[in-house]
UniProtKB/TrEMBL annotation:
This is F-box only protein 32. Substrate recognition component of a SCF (SKP1-CUL1-F-box protein) E3 ubiquitin-protein ligase complex which mediates the ubiquitination and subsequent proteasomal degradation of target proteins. Probably recognizes and binds to phosphorylated target proteins during skeletal muscle atrophy. Recognizes TERF1. Keywords: Cytoplasm, Nucleus, Ubl conjugation pathway. GO terms for cellular component: cytoplasm; nucleus; SCF ubiquitin ligase complex. Transmembrane segments: none annotated. Part of the SCF (SKP1-CUL1-F-box) E3 ubiquitin-protein ligase complex SCF(FBXO32) formed of CUL1, SKP1, RBX1 and FBXO32. Pathway: Protein modification; protein ubiquitination. The keyword Transcription regulation does not apply. Coiled coil: none annotated. It is found in: Cytoplasm; Nucleus. The lineage of its organism: Eukaryota, Metazoa, Chordata, Craniata, Vertebrata.
Length: 319
C-alpha cells in the first residue's frame, strides 16, 4: 500500500479497474453456480462416518448438512419402505434444524422436497402427509426470514422468498388434486367379509385414516366406529399411564376410545413405525441405509447395525 501511494493517479486507476474486473468475474461465476442450483451434490460413497463423542470440535468434520448430502435421500424417496422415513426427517429438519444445514445442503433439501411433491402429484398418495410437511416448513421460514440480519439463514433473502413462493405453489398444486377412481371394477374392500374389513382397518396406524375410510361407504362408517378398533389404536401408540390420565366416558358410561385417541395425540407423540430406516454400525460408527456396502472390519457387520429413528438421526449431530 505504501509503494502504491507513491505512484501517480494513472497507476491507481489501472489498479482499481483491475479490482473491478476481478469482482465482476467472481460475480459471474457465482451467478453461474446459482443457476445450476437444481443439480444435486453427489458423492460416490453413500455412507458417512459419525465421530464418537459430542464436542463441537469433533463434530466439525461430520455435520448434519454433510450427512444429508451423502446419504442419497433422492433415491430413498422412490422406495415405498423409506418414503415416510425421509418425509419425517424433512419435517424434523424444517422444525428446528434448517439453520444447521450448509448452503449446498439447503439446496439439496429443497431439491429433494420438490421431488417428493412431484411424486405425490403423480401417484396421488400421502397427500395429507406432504401438506403437513410443507406447512411446517413454511411456518418455520416465516419465522426465520423475520430474523434476517442476525446470521440465521444462509444465502440471500430474495432466494429464500423465492423458495417460500415455491412452497405456496406446491401447496396449491396439492389442493387441486382430484383423486381419480381406478378403472378396475373387480372386488373392492366392501365386498370382503366384515371380519376381513375390520382386520384391514386394524393395520391403519393413523386415526385420521380411519375417519377418512369411514366416509367412503355407510358400511365402512359403522366399522370405523368400532370401540375395540380405537382401543387397540390407543394401546399401540400410548402407554397405560398416558391412557389412564385422559379417560373420557361416553353418554352410555363407557370409555370413548375414539375421543381419547385424538386427545392423546394432542398431548403425546405417536409411536413411529417405518419399513426401512438408516442404520448405524456400532463397530465402525458408519451411518448408511440398510443394504449399503461400507468398509466395516467386523466379522458379521449385519449384527452390529442399529436402526435409527428420524429423531435419533438428528440427535447424532447435536453437541
Amino acid at each position: 500500500i505504501h509503494s502504491f501511494c507513491k505512484k501517480d493517479d494513472h497507476n491507481k486507476e489501472n489498479l482499481f479497474n483491475s479490482l473491478n474486473y476481478d469482482v465482476a468475474a467472481k460475480k459471474r461465476k457465482k451467478d453461474l453456480l446459482n443457476n445450476k442450483a437444481k443439480i444435486q451434490y453427489f458423492h460416490q460413497e453413500k455412507w458417512i462416518y459419525v465421530h464418537k463423542g459430542s464436542t463441537k470440535e469433533r463434530h466439525g468434520y461430520c455435520t448434519l448438512g454433510e450427512a444429508f448430502n451423502r446419504l442419497d435421500f433422492s433415491s430413498a424417496i422412490l422406495d415405498s419402505r423409506r418414503f415416510n422415513y425421509v418425509v419425517r426427517l424433512l419435517e424434523l429438519i424444517a422444525k428446528s434444524q434448517l439453520t444447521s444445514l450448509s448452503g449446498i445442503a439447503q439446496k439439496n433439501y429443497m431439491n429433494i422436497l420438490e421431488k417428493v411433491v412431484q411424486k405425490v402429484l403423480e401417484d396421488q398418495q400421502n397427500i395429507r402427509l406432504i401438506r403437513e410437511l410443507l406447512q411446517t416448513l413454511y411456518t418455520s421460514l416465516c419465522t426465520l426470514v423475520q430474523r434476517v440480519g442476525k446470521s440465521v439463514l444462509v444465502g440471500n433473502i430474495n432466494m429464500w422468498v423465492h423458495r417460500m413462493e415455491s412452497i405456496l405453489h406446491w401447496q396449491q398444486q396439492l389442493n387441486n388434486i382430484q383423486i381419480t377412481r381406478p378403472a378396475f371394477k373387480g372386488t373392492t374392500l366392501t365386498d370382503l367379509p366384515l371380519c376381513l374389513q375390520l382386520n384391514i382397518m386394524q393395520r391403519l396406524s393413523d386415526g385420521r385414516d380411519l375417519v377418512s375410510l369411514g366416509q367412503v361407504a355407510p358400511d365402512l362408517q359403522v366399522l370405523s366406529e368400532d370401540r375395540l378398533l380405537w382401543k387397540k389404536l390407543c394401546q399401540y401408540h400410548f402407554t397405560d399411564r398416558q391412557i389412564r390420565k385422559w379417560l373420557i366416558l361416553s353418554d352410555k358410561g363407557q370409555l370413548d376410545w375414539k375421543k381419547m385417541y385424538f386427545k392423546l395425540v394432542r398431548c403425546y407423540p405417536r409411536k413411529e413405525q417405518y419399513g426401512d430406516t438408516l442404520q448405524l454400525c456400532r463397530h465402525c460408527h458408519i451411518l448408511s441405509w440398510k443394504g449399503t456396502d461400507h468398509p466395516c472390519t467386523a466379522n458379521n457387520p449385519e449384527t452390529c447395525s442399529t436402526s435409527l429413528s428420524p429423531q435419533d438421526f438428528i440427535n447424532l449431530f447435536r453437541f
